Amino acid sequence: MAQAPRLCSTAEAAVPHFFPLISFMPNERLAQGLIQVYTGDGKGKTTCALGLALRAAGQGFKVYIIQFMKGRQTGESRAVARLAPEVTLRYFGRPGLVNLRAPAPSDLALVQEGWALARQVLAAGDHDLVILDEINLALTHNLIPLEEALEALRLRPPGVEVVLTGRQAPPELVALADLVTEMRPIKHYYQAGIKARRGIEW
């Protein structure tokens, strides 16, 4: 009588039977970090950047994420706590939207505080991947000096990859970047009245 196939437990199923474990060299860094820009009006810019952060962390890279104009705890901020110390996330903002044409002094101060930290992280070169989430709008609306940002990107150590997200990426940033992806909305469930959902949008 043929035996029924043995079912794997959840723990067994999670073991990568077909892929050998990768041993990381402590000094193994990117030979040349590039600049990536995710922009456009469509959903997915931050989500894309966070996916790259997860991939980089899985390869043993150190990741630093700075979120501008975001002021509440999200799924990613909670998840990053589980990935420390390989991944760090800091967010600078208050709950709610920022008036970009006439930002409140407190909003402007938080953006500039975040940018001061970003400059330090870029210049130090201790992280393989630096993600500046929602910085594009801050650059376009002069909350952060554009030329100062471009200079910081040019002068960063060679092994640092940088991702900048947000709508309305300035043309000067687009020209400097090595990769630019524009998210274009074709269909969105917001149009059907579905609101932002926990674990999906935040």
Task: Sum up the structure in keywords.
single chain, 202 residues, alpha/beta, six-stranded parallel beta sheet, 34% helix, 15% strand
Written overview of the protein:
This protein is an alpha/beta fold and 202 residues long. It has a single domain (35-185), classed as P-loop containing nucleotide triphosphate hydrolases (Rossmann fold, 3-Layer(aba) Sandwich), CATH 3.40.50. The protein has helices at 10-13, 45-58, 75-83, 105-124, 135-140, 146-155, 171-176; strands at 35-39, 63-68, 87-92, 129-133, 161-165, 179-182. Strands 3-2-4-5-1-6 form a 6-stranded parallel β-sheet, with helices on both faces. The termini are far apart.
Short recap of the structure:
The protein is an alpha/beta fold and 202 residues long.
Lateral arrangement of strands in the main beta sheet: 3-2-4-5-1-6
Instruction: Let me know the number of strands.
Output: 6
Envelope shape: globular
pLDDT < 50 runs, ≥5 residues: 8-13
Number of helices: 7
The CATH class assignment is: Alpha Beta
Helix content: 25-40%
Structural class: alpha/beta
Output the CATH homologous superfamily. P-loop containing nucleotide triphosphate hydrolases
CATH topology descriptor: Rossmann fold
